[in-house]
Amino acid sequence: MQVLMRTSFIILCSFCLTLVSCSQKPMNKTPDTTVHKHTNALIHESSPYLLQHAHNPVDWYPWGEEALTKARKENKLLLVSVGYAACHWCHVMEHESFEDEEVAAYMNEHFVCIKVDREERPDVDQVYMNAAQLITGRGGWPLNCIAMPDGRPIYAGTYFQKEQWLNVLSQVYNFVTQYPDKAEQQANSLTKGVQTSEMVVLNEQEIDLHEDDLEVIFRNWKKRIDYDEGGHQGAPKFPMPVGFQYLLNYYDHSGNQDAIRAVLVTLDKMAAGGIYDQIGGGFARYSTDDIWKAPHFEKMLYDNGQLVSLYASAYQLTKNPRYREVVEETLEFTKRELTSKEGGFYSSLDADSEGEEGKFYVWKLEELEEALGSKAELIAAYYNATEKGNWEHKNNILLCSDNVEKLCKKFDLSEDELQKEVQKAKNTLMKARSKRVRPGLDDKVLTSWNGLMLKGYVDAYRYLGIEDYLETALTNAQFLLDEMKEQDHRLHRNYKNGKASINGFLDDYAFAASAFIALYQATFDEQWLMEARHLCRYAVEHFYDERSGMFFYTSKLDPALIARKMEVSDNVIPAANSEMAKNLFVLGQYFYQETYVEMARKMLNNVKEQTFKGNTYYANWDLLMLWLIDEPYQVAIVGKDYEAKRKELDQHYLPNAFLMGGATEGTLPLLENKLQKGSTTIYVCRNKACKLPTTDVGEALKQLAD
Length: 706
Prior knowledge:
Helices cover 49% and strands 11% of the residues. Helix 18 packs antiparallel against helix 19 (467-484) and helix 18 (447-464) runs parallel beside helix 20. The longest helix is centred in the middle third of the chain and has 19 residues, at 415-433.
């Protein structure tokens, strides 16, 4: 929605907004000490990001009633600054402005200043990010918004250098002081825009889905695919795992070779690029260029959880050993660096160490030579490292060679011998790298992101067959039940220092439920399917909007913000609404609950028109559409050897099959009367009708292919 703005005000402030290239030289961050000149209210918080700002001279408050009451009582503007612990440019702005006494003095005098961890409070971030996008047409972090004392935004932007920031603060403060009526008009217009943008209106027409719809979606999507380097055309490049997960499913459905080519070139290029940690495993958040070379070095749990699922699925389909290796290395990284002793998964690793972006991960040629000795020439050639460096300041980002055959010939090695040398070198470089100053760890545990990594572990177990992955998944799932869920099935969002806090948001329910459904398919333990149903029931009761047929992002129990938003379009993380719609559909299949299936159908109908040109931003909705067009199979495996037959089925890529079963019939409707004494039987069913039972997995696969 277009928001009516006072042109003079926009011109006044917009010249101060500067987009910062990730290739610019970062500023060093002032080191922490044991004696602090300043301490503010953030010192009582558990968020690592908020604690980073606890000794700024800015008189920061956390988001909450104390700060909001203070602003209203003193009639002061709010200054809401949003970021996260792994955000490089958040650190830069902190050093340049928030640690500066002059800037802090102005902020403290004229504003009530609030710091927000966007990962803990995505609801607050949504509101003010939406305001920034309406004003400037873009967004990002750090996000800085100036609002009226009641929270209505009046101006928002991202990163500002010190003088720009002071200028913005004074311009906005003077504008509000000198022209209060115009300021009210600006706040009202912008707030209305925030409240109405992305809100969904119920589509009361009958949903009409056809095979051609899928073809139209891919035809439009294909125009933006980079078939040379993978991902979408241009820079920066984000992995967008859900998009490529959909294309895998679409290929399985249609046999479209362009769809599978888009997936495989992306996975190959990412695995060979700088976005992937060639030494320690795991993916950075995105690539700043269009060839996956130079990453923004922070590592986020949500990316790695989804990419584990994606690479595991691709391995299941192709049996490409490199995809298996990526899964194993990424989960080894997760175990080593992002797993708590309680079994929860931490949120992220910082982009910076010692005040420099990427310093922990890059290598000068002499460092490789010192660590590797006589093998340095080979390994440097393999990873494209040179004396001049392939990045800045003579540093090298390790990138796999795209001409292994030429390397083998030059060094007189077989390809197998080369890979053995590379593996030895990786172990050596890991030991050398472990002596460096490590990037900061954000050790809060978020329910939604844990759901994504939990599902990654489950998928890796099912498709790679490694039992340890199931054990880790079960430990994490039990942690979520024990620490993040109340008896009434209400979820907490955050866990830190032995304490759960913050009422859960819709994505917490959506991704936890999805992970529990996946865990059921891996174990046939009905506990997990029941837990998923409990969470979805709670979400329907506390988040569902009858008027639109969609879910709000916040619970009806939460204190109201200036807008109650809906998360609809998919991004680097799928939208909470699209994931919840898929959960309702799947649970409807398992429990014969047509009400849930109909809810999912209505949700898709509300966004159907956007799916045609939305590309990856509606990919999770596209997965639901595919299920509604090509109804999934229910595959029941009942009998004492159910586990062996399930594992055999899991060697095959079957995205359109929902598995169920166990040693007994259990309680699911489809399993009733399916147990045959003395045998383990497989039933391939569709729309509650089953084909002839079989004890042979090969025959079941033929039935699935019919």
